[in-house]
Design brief:
Elements (H helix, E strand, L loop, with lengths): L9 H10 L1 E4 L5 H17 L1 H14 L8 E4 L6 H7 L2 H11 L4 E11 L6 E4 L7 E2 L3 E7 L10 E5 L6 H6 L10 E4 L8 E5 L4 E3 L8 E10 L3 E2 L2 H4 L7 H4 L19 E2 L1
Antiparallel strand pairs: 1-9, 2-3, 3-11, 3-13, 4-10, 5-12, 6-9, 6-11, 7-8, 7-10
């Protein structure tokens, strides 16, 4: 999809800088989202076995607990409808505006199916699962249908992307309960898109509805980022390794993150 960036004034840009998250209402039309749902639901069916395999691996990592969602990594590399979404000029333009940069590259796209009855998604930050040495990283997330308030939209630990004290003094495994104001963006109409910074802690509630929730996430980073040096790579949470397995072996620690699978999106 083409189109221009969301209309973002100084107040919205400052809110994103301070809070680490924002919702752009009506970035897509309901007709566009309906078309996305039909095509991405078909992609989800084709990719179901691979998503199940990754979920089983997550189950093992969590001591046998059922994975809280099915995740399809980078469907844009295999399916044209997903490529159209991931390289949408409207998304890239909004990412550039929120990061305050001139150029962004596509890091990954993901299709998330949170099945009826799935448990809550744990608190996490996207950059903790990435081998990129950067602070300029952003993810957009949007359901491919309407979502009621207090359902399975993302919940954000406001300001946690600026909290250097947490990892510095307590490490990645520290329980941050009560440390931040927790916020979500309420109900989502078809076409509403939320955005969060790569270091922002976020989660999602359990799915208590009888319907599976289907959502898309697309992550961008500012051009000029490098691969983490070797000692730092050992600290990367490898849960999302299917996302970078196809390109990371071609680059060395410290290299510029330039690869055909990390394209510039304009």
């Amino acid at each position: 999809s083409g189109g221009s960036a969301a209309t973002l004034g100084a107040e919205e840009l400052l809110a994103f800088e301070r809070d680490g998250h924002i919702c752009t209402r009506g970035l897509f039309s309901s007709d566009e989202v309906e078309a996305m749902y039909e095509s991405m639901e078909a992609v989800s069916r084709v990719e179901a076995k691979a998503a199940e395999r990754h979920a089983v691996a997550m189950n093992d990592a969590m001591g046998g607990e059922r994975a809280p969602f099915l995740q399809t990594f980078n469907p844009h590399r295999r399916h044209r409808p997903a490529l159209k979404v991931a390289t949408c000029a409207r998304l890239a333009a909004t990412a550039r505006a929120l990061l305050g940069v001139d150029e962004v590259q596509l890091y990954q796209s993901c299709l998330f199916k949170k099945r009826a009855g799935d448990e809550a998604t744990n608190w996490h930050s996207d950059l903790h699962t990435s081998p990129l040495d950067t602070n300029q990283f952003i993810t957009c997330w949007f359901p491919l249908h309407e979502l009621e308030a207090d359902s399975t939209g993302l919940c954000y630990a406001t300001g946690s992307h600026r909290d250097l004290a947490l990892p510095m003094w307590y490490g990645q495994g520290f329980d941050a309960d009560g440390r931040y104001e927790l916020e979500d963006h309420g109900a989502y109409e078809a076409g509403d898109v939320s955005w969060h910074h790569g270091w922002l802690l976020h989660s999602a509630a359990d799915n208590r509805s009888p319907r599976d929730r289907l959502a898309v996430a697309v992550s961008f980073f500012a051009s000029g980022a490098c691969i983490i040096e070797e000692d730092g790579l050992a600290c990367v949470n490898d849960e999302d390794h299917p996302s970078y397995d196809d390109w990371l072996p071609d680059l060395a620690p410290g290299d510029l993150a330039a690869h055909e699978l990390l394209p510039v999106v304009r």
